[in-house]
Amino acid sequence: MFVAHFQRNINHDRLHQDLRSPNITYRHRDRSCIHCYPPELLLSDNFSTFWDWYSSEYPAITYTRYTQQYLEELSYVEGEDIWIAIIDLIFSIRYSDTPILNFEALQQEIWNIYSITQGFRLDLFIITYNYSEIRFSTSPGSEEIVNNNPQPIAQQPDNMAQPNQQDFQQLRAAIAALTQALPNTNNALAGNTQAITNPPRREGKVAELPYFYGGNQDPVAWLEDFTRACNANGIANGRKLEVVPAYLKGAASTWWNANQALPNNNPNKVVAWTGNNNNTDFVLNFPAAFRTQTLIEIWTTELEQKRQQPGEDVNTSHQSSEICQRTAA
């Protein structure tokens, strides 16, 4: 994995030299390039803690704003998306050499430390020190050592001999959270190769999302256009229902607000984009709500004009079939 990363770095840096430009994202993208993606100047405390640890443990030399972004993503992603964010995090960093851990072990190490430090909000070095103090204070034979040295040369202050109990509690809570929060490690790591080669698409802006106002605007055509635009932008079905209210205007917005005000157990309240195969699906409820008599008459007229004639191509016949489905809905 790192061989490909290093080769990408070399190719990208060579393009910088050839083009003599500080930003070459229009030609080649490498999210570990500090020239194309300079980091935010104001670092969060948890990112500073992360970088202090990571750069001291591994041959990491520079990071970008994507490194900061991917670390932030770890605070809200779940399941397999955790590993995708960690992979992106690793490859948003430049290295002077290949890390000594194998790639899967490196991912697991980052997640373990992230969990133990509660998202790098706790200082890892303090936690490690306190943990070593716990082990020392409970080690076999410690009492015997004290008895054999009744008069030490220099007496340590009591506050130095007693580790902070609050830190202990935080450490224990973090370890307990780690046990609960870690996904099924074996299954997750086994799927890493597939996740790397075929990661889920990130949302972007490739196509403009259309607005719907109601009236004689065709709800079926609009829904098809909206779905295509969402798919082009990487917006999954689970997110479409969150996005669509912003693109319903006028009468359509009024309908949506009234629908969402229905009781939770109402069979006509939209709760999903698709999948339920009833009126709780947006893709079924919405077209029915705006299927006006005027539109039916328009569709019927189009259908009569598009009846397949001898020699008519299949595409035209398919359009007629779609119109027929609208009028019969």
TrEMBL record:
Amino acid composition bias (Polar residues), ranges on this chain: 314-329
Region feature Disordered, mapped onto this chain: 307-329
Protein name: Uncharacterized protein
